[in-house]
Amino acid sequence: MLERLKTFARALKADLLALSVAVRDPRTPWYARAWAALVLAYALSPIDLIPDFIPVLGYLDDLLLVPAGLWLALRLLAPEVLEDARREARERPQRLGRSAWGLALVIGVYLALIVLAGWWWTQRGGPAR
């Protein structure tokens, strides 16, 4: 079981590296590039949707959201772009590190969600009286 998890983690890291290469490929459509950038930003961001210190739920986003987002991002890529990106990621190993741009993007998305929730709350009249 532990060996399967290690293999899954290595495959996930390899696909994240390939995705980071595919984002810069001009053959990647804008919508796939945008989704891939969000997935990479979330995966590399030090801020999680559910903080890790919350028992069980804290790791659920890492175990479900990142692989699900990665799966969709890989499906949005053309097969030849994905193959070229995987080949380049294998030939020129890069390091996925924490990204200031990723942090800024995730914070921006969270702030936009908070503003949207506040707007929705005020539109429906606020708390019941």
TrEMBL record:
Subcellular location: Endomembrane system
Source organism, top-level taxon: Bacteria
TM helices/strands, residue ranges: 99-121
Organism lineage string: Bacteria, Thermotogati, Deinococcota, Deinococci, Deinococcales
GO cellular component annotations of the record: endomembrane system
Domain DUF1232: 32-67
Name of the molecule in the record: DUF1232 domain-containing protein
Keyword set includes Hydrolase: no
Principal location listed in the UniProt entry: membrane
Organism this protein belongs to: Deinococcus koreensis
Any one Pfam family match given in the protein's UniProt record, by short name: DUF1232
Annotated membrane topology: Multi-pass membrane protein
Keyword field: Membrane, Transmembrane, Transmembrane helix
